[in-house]
Amino acid sequence: METNVYGNVADVVMTVSSQDGDSIREMGVDTELKWLPFIAEASKAEDVPRASSRHGLLYCSSLNPIAVAAMEWLVTNVRPEMMSLCLCCCLCGCLI
To answer: Same domain, yes or no, for 58 and 70?
Structure first.
C-alpha cells in the first residue's frame, strides 16, 4: 500500500535516514527522495511563517490503517475544536 502511494501519488518521499531511502528504493520506488534530518532545536516563533500563509499537512507516519484512522480522527475532531478554542497551538495563526 505504501509503495503505491510513494510511486503513484507522492511528489516527494521524505526519509529519516539514508538506510530508509535505500529500503524504499529496493521496493522499486523511483519517486524523488529527500532526507529529513533530525533537528533537536526548535525554530523561533518569529521564524515560522504565519499559519494563514501555510497550507497542507505533513503526515509523518506510515499508512497503517490504524495510523490513518487516527490522523483522520485528529483532523476531523480535534483540530476544529482547538481552533475554536484558540489554544495557541499555531493552527489558527494567532501567535505567529
So the answer is: yes
